[in-house]
Fold this protein.
Amino acid sequence: MNFDKVSHRRFRSTHASEESRQELLAKVNSDRAVREVSRRRLKAAVYVQRVYRGWHARRAIRRDCIDHWLHMYSKAAADLSCFVPAVGLSGVLLPPIFQVYKGLAMSNNSGVPPGSHQPGNSPLSGSAAVALRGTFALLLRSVSSTQRELNFCGLAVEEHHR
């Protein structure tokens, strides 16, 4: 048997497998890099969708709260002789309005998507401004009342101090 041919074949086969191993390693690394880019893109897309859906849901809830307030209390706010009991003002009327405007104040974009700050697109235009003015009108009417059950400030005084 000719040992030179066998060793030469072994060397060639080892060298060929080394090349294929290097090629395979390069292919695996490139595939890994492509998957990593794909994962990053997917993660970024999911994040953008989550932010948009959250913004959209908060906007819808804000709109519903304001519409509900207008339906329930706009007539009472417009009638100067109408007073809302202090307990109702504290427990039913104020919390949703304050939550709506707290959310607007805490958001970076004031409740409107980036780039859409235009005169007609203010978060305090239209029904939102009417609801806020009406809330403060009812609150001020309550504070000016001399009747204990209608005065909002009377809630701050404990029962045993009356």
In short: The helical segments are 3-78, 86-106, 127-144. DSSP finds three helices and no strands in the chain.
